[in-house]
């Protein structure tokens, strides 16, 4: 009996026990699905996040005021003063490098938009900005136009709305442009609709209403308002130098004393990307661990089934040995059966894992992610299947090869 005949016999034995083969393969498929599915979902989420950050540009950073007090040296320090409108204007005038700078503020953090009898949930963010806000923040206009100098100079009641607000209020039946909506007690004429952006925040960037900056300042009333500064410097390769210059300019404007900590925060787009990569790295390790534990349980189940198979086929093993089959050929046959079962389950698990992983990534990223085919994890899945097959098949194969042919033939 040569190797080819042994493989044929192994496949025939698998085909002769279809129900057991299917159930055993399902055990392996579930383990591979958990492994490939989790890792595919993580890769899909990471791809979506990378695309979101890519829209901001490599040399984009923001200057914002710290919102929370923090503990330092055993005592709680007061939170920083808000960034005033005059601070933001001065920074925009004094910062070099020919940067594109936008100044913005959150007028209302949780507002409700209304159009006729239609209204959104009270989770709309009313933001005041200028004409540079949309390109610097990575938005694109799907319908209508951006702010003009006339809109900004006279603080006209015009607005650019996110795609989710447009869908809720107008349900794709009306053209939102030139319609009038009410937000936070004021009426605004829609001049533009932003393209869908999505993201890990559950689509929060699609629930914004952008109005002229000076118009947003009127919402502050007696409360102090803080402004955010976002700069994009696409022609400079050394971002550390740019941010160092920005920090120096802002310290002068804010009159921070020498040796005093900054009274503001500088947030870099690439810092957020690196933090995301680090987090997804930990998630990937955790996902691999969960998948490995699941596969370990599947391999133990396969080992048990193969041991049962050896017991059931004791007489068959005795006949094969009496006809001249060597212990090596007996071992090969049982190992081939275990590996083939694992590969069948692995292929099914990879297909299921691809589907499940991409569905999870699409839901988390708000439908903006692309379909991910993780060739590396698919290869790892196949290698793991073969390894599991060897692990689960080697002991039953050795046990079968050591059976005495005389005793095996007597087995009932």
Automatic annotation (TrEMBL):
Annotated localization: Cell membrane
Residue intervals passing through the bilayer: 21-42, 288-311, 334-360, 372-395
Q: What positions belong to coiled-coil segments?
A: none
Q: Which residues form the ABC3 transporter permease C-terminal domain?
A: 290-405
A GO MF label: transmembrane transporter activity
Show the Pfam families listed in the entry: FtsX (PF02687), MacB_PCD (PF12704)
| Bilayer topology term | Multi-pass membrane protein
Keyword field contains Transmembrane: yes
Asked if the record carries the keyword Cytoplasm, the reply is no
* Residue span, MacB-like periplasmic core domain: 21-247
Q: Which GO terms describe its cellular component?
A: plasma membrane
**InterPro entries assigned:** ABC3_permease_C, MacB_PCD, Macrolide_Exporter_MacB
Q: Which domain of life is it from?
A: Bacteria
Provide the alphabetized UniProt keywords: Cell membrane, Membrane, Transmembrane, Transmembrane helix
Task: Give the PANTHER family listed for this entry.
Answer: ABC TRANSPORTER PERMEASE YTRF, MEMBRANE COMPONENT OF TRANSPORTER-RELATED
Per the similarity annotation, which family is this?
Answer: Belongs to the ABC-4 integral membrane protein family.
Q: What is this protein called?
A: FtsX-like permease family protein
